[in-house]
């Protein structure tokens, strides 16, 4: 196989968040591009060193008489991820570092209790991208912060929490899942028809290519069919959810810009709105 520079990956945080955490048991993703459960919340900026993934295998080499290795036994396996939270006055970060029950938010004030309680097990997502080359997603179904490095409080440096997350095996015996999606990152859009029209049509456009006209009260299946008919989208390149007449949640798996126009009548100043989400 020939060498390909497109297979060289340099990680950058995704605009939707790089590190996300949810309660233990939250359903996880199925790919690098699938929508995340709303329970996964972005924990803000991560330190410039990014993420350090460490897999450790302890082995016991069995020797035969004469010194030859005849068998290698694996006695232990562990997987950890280390990174630094930079947003030290973010309540979500403080809950991750000190425990959900030890952080109380009242208006603009945050109270934190430091004690010996074990930190909670959570589900973790690490999302990164490399421009239009690829997306990489890591999911730890069951991870617990095992160590928090010393916190330095000085006027010459920002406060950061450098933590190590220990990954535990799920019911399938897997502590971490990873997916890579080659190509442009998907884009997500909300299409809304307001003003309660009683007739008319609308058209959606992907990167300058318009769909056929769609009825004002179309179902999500009809909207998907119109988008899938575009050569650069295709059936597998778009998902559409929402009730008949919208709002519709649209994901373009191959990325791209979505716009729209409409000719709507009836109701009160009906209009079509397309917004990135």
Q: What topology does this entry show?
A:
Blueprint: E1 12-13, E2 19-23, E3 41-42, E4 52-63, E5 69-85, H1 91-98, E6 103-106, E7 109-112, E8 121-130, E9 134-148, E10 161-167, E11 177-182, E12 187-194, E13 199-206, E14 209-210, E15 214-215, H2 220-228, E16 238-241, E17 248-252, E18 258-265, E19 271-276
Antiparallel strand pairs: 1-8, 2-3, 2-8, 4-5, 5-10, 6-7, 8-9, 9-10, 9-11, 12-17, 12-19, 13-14, 13-15, 13-18, 16-17
Mean pLDDT: 94
Query: What's the helix count?
Result: 2
Order of helices and strands: EEEEEHEEEEEEEEEEHEEEE
Q: How many angstroms separate the termini?
A: 39 Å
- Number of E strands: 19
Mind telling me the C-alpha Rg? 24 Å
Low-confidence stretches: none
Q: Proportion of β residues?
A: over 45%
The coarse silhouette is globular
Helix-residue proportion: under 10%
The helix-and-strand class reads mainly beta
Main β sheet profile: 9 strands, antiparallel
What labels describe this entry?
277 residues, mainly beta, globular, nine-stranded antiparallel β-sheet, 46% strand, four-stranded antiparallel β-sheet
Compact overview of the structure:
It is built from two helices and 19 strands. It has 277 residues and is mainly β.
